[in-house]
Amino acid sequence: GILVYVQFFSYIIASLIIIKKYQVEIKNVYSTIEHINLSWLNFVIFGFIGWKSLEIIELVLLITGRNYSAIFFYITAEVVFLIFVSLMFLKGLKQPEIFSGNNENQHKRKYEKVLLSEAMKEDYKNKLVQCMETQKPYLDLSLCLNDLAEKVSISPQYLSQVLNTCLNKNFFDYINSYRIKESKSLLSGQASNKKTILEILYESGFNSKSVFNTAFKKHTGMTPSQFRRLQNS
């Protein structure tokens, strides 16, 4: 019986590690991650932890001879499990994509894992920079790694290599650095005061005020409002 619980909590720890890795990986693929909500995974994991914890308490009470208390925790555990399954069912009805898988990942192209030469990296980096500065793809709110790779005419894997090894950035941070540069330009312009911060963040490629403020402060050390006041002083 004890081995079952050890195995259960081992799976829980492994699941939390996988979720943590995925949270890092999505920044290598997407420039906007607000739409990727992993809270339901935490709900599932901690729901199972709560249910199993009640079972453990029940087991301890049985071993110590507290049968009536054990019965209470047994009933409580079953009720909690029933509520948990019902909530999962409702979650599935509201967000069926949770259980249907990620179509983008299922259909994305497969590329061989070939390391680029330094000359090829430099060539691809120059193409990337030229594309970013002339076409401004970062203004697209839904821009992802595959989209940008198509614009630069290289494979997503090669683009990821260039970003990670030549520019020392993941896709998310690289795109947002250009968006911050664009927003700084808009905040410094003569027409800046005629636009709200919300309008400027959308025009810069962001779609969340909290993400914009966090990224802006990370790159400049001040909030967008403080930056605009400094430019106007």
TrEMBL record:
PANTHER family: ARAC-FAMILY TRANSCRIPTIONAL REGULATOR. Gene3D superfamilies: Homeodomain-like. It holds the Pfam family HTH_18. Residues 126-230 form the HTH araC/xylS-type domain. It comes from marine sediment metagenome. The keyword Transcription regulation applies. The chain crosses the membrane at residues 6-22, 43-65, 71-90. Keywords: DNA-binding, Membrane, Transcription, Transcription regulation, Transmembrane, Transmembrane helix. GO terms for molecular function: DNA-binding transcription factor activity; sequence-specific DNA binding. InterPro entries: Homeodomain-like_sf, HTH_AraC, HTH_AraC-typ_CS, Tscrpt_reg_AraC-type_HTH. This is HTH araC/xylS-type domain-containing protein.
